[in-house]
Amino acid sequence: MGFSHLAGELEQIKQQSLYRKRRVSSFFQDVKVEIDGKSVINFSSNDYLGLANHPDVIKSFKKATDKYGVGSGSAHLICGHSESHHALEQELAEFTGRDRVLLFSTGYMANMGVISALLSRGDQVFEDRLNHASLLDGGLLSGARFKRYRHNDLTDLRAKIRNKEGQSLIVTDGVFSMDGDLALLPELAKVAVDNNAWVMVDDAHGFGVLGKTGGGVVEHYGLTQQQVPILMGTLGKAFGTFGAFVAGSEVLIETLVQKARTYIFTTAMPAAIAEATRTSLKLLAADEWRREKLNLLTQRFSLGAKQLGLNLMQSNTAIQPLLIGDNFRAVDISEALLAKGFFINAIRFPTVPKGESRLRITFSANHQEQHVDQLLDALDSVSL
Fold first, then answer.
1. Got the DSSP string for 112-143?
2. Beta strand pairing call for 100-104 and 346-347
3. Cys-Cys link to 17, which of 127, 206, 241, 328 (CB 3.0-4.6 A)?
4. CA 163 to CA 318: how far, in whole Å?
């Protein structure tokens, strides 16, 4: 059987300007990259604190490869759990103020593993409509009754959770990855208490960025393990490395060790990555100036964009979405900016709702004020 029907589907995607393309990049210094042979300033990375190329992080990785090699060889529960993995889990537990931490190979695997391990048929899961795909997929995989509430709409959530059955889990992003706004986490925690439910937060884009010590959205709001019992974070963004973790109570983590299929049946992340992450964790916690600089750069851009009359969505984080609307215009503007030396991806359906295509502009502590000003000049010169 051929794939002619798939070829037709691909053509339809192209005609709607929804076709995705990979670009070949060469990273050579900080926020500058080489895209398809052209040197550009990158405003699409999630390396918020600029740690991915930090010399101490790189040194730790190289040193660890001498001890462990490049791969991990097996799953955590067979022979892939090294001293470095174990030490990182303990240090992350201390950093988050939680009983225990479990490492996962990716954030997608963490979210799917946690939700499907905790819920089953007869339970319920309530998810913000703008949650990351991994959270939505985890809810569907679990077999629990799946309900989505309107974005940050507590009234809608309360109406849906009222007729609950079995165990209930409220799931949300901490920082919404395409909008840059925060979940109403204190209010969600109260709804959970009122309805005997658990709260799970995916803080992939909050860790390192929010909170005085970079503890993320939970630290930002001053919430406890009891109020937010399930906390997921990724290591490939502000930490600058790779992988993910879940933090919570002893009972929660041991349950995941025994039941989370995406933990049990996959190869552990390389031990050298874990060792590099131990170094980035120290830098993330100690270097408050990185968060301060990131905030200043974000505020500078936001103010400049408003002065230019740009349709910037409301966000106080390093994610600054510029709403375009039309798929074709979003792609055209992205290409025009690339020609001017700025790499900013056009984000379209299904990543965002139909009619809400945008340029997702992200900042790093390694950006300079001149980069922000140059970007504003470029945005002013293209047809918005």
1. HHHHHHH--BTBEEEEETT--HHHHHHHHHH-
2. unpaired
3. 328
4. 38
To the query of whether residue 190 is one of the catalytic residues in this protein, the response is no
Q: Is 229 helix (H, G, I), strand (E, B) or coil?
A: coil
* Phi, psi torsion values for 152, nearest 5 degrees: 55, 30
Q: Is 156 exposed, middle or buried (0-12, 13-18, 19+ CB in 10 A)?
A: middle
Question: Both 231 and 126 in a single domain?
Answer: yes
The answer to whether residue 177 is catalytic is: yes
Q: 134 and 25 in one domain?
A: no
Candidates 54, 81, 132, 205; catalytic one: 205
| Helix runs in 119-221, H state only | 133-142, 154-161, 185-194, 217-221
**Total number of domains constituting the chain:** 2
The alpha carbon of 244 is separated from its chain's Cα centroid by a whole number of angstroms, namely: 10
Note down pLDDT in tens along the chain; length 384 residues. Answer: 578 889 889 989 999 888 888 887 776 557 888 887 889 999 999 999 999 999 999 999 999 999 999 999 999 999 999 999 999 999 999 999 999 999 999 999 999 999 999 999 999 999 999 999 999 999 999 999 999 999 999 999 999 998 677 899 999 999 999 999 999 999 999 999 999 999 999 999 999 999 999 999 999 999 999 999 999 999 999 999 999 999 999 999 999 999 999 999 999 999 999 999 999 999 999 999 999 999 999 999 999 999 999 999 999 999 999 999 999 999 999 999 999 999 999 999 999 999 999 999 999 999 999 999 999 999 999 866
Tell me whether residue 120 is one of the annotated catalytic residues: no
- d(C-alpha 136, C-alpha 53), whole Å: 32
For residues 107 and 170, state if they share a domain. Answer: yes
Residue ranges making up the domain that contains 45: 21-49+288-381
Q: Choose the catalytic residue: 54, 132, 237, 367.
A: 237
Which candidate, 231, 270, 273, 267, places its Cα nearest to that of 249? 231
Are 147 and 229 contained in the same domain?
yes
Residue of 44, 82, 116, 177 marked catalytic:
177
- Rounded to 5 degrees, what angle do the CA atoms 279, 99, 261 make? 85
Structure tokens at 290: 């990185």
- 133 shares its domain with 197: yes
Plot region of 240 (φ>0 → left; ψ -120 to 50 → alpha; else → beta): left
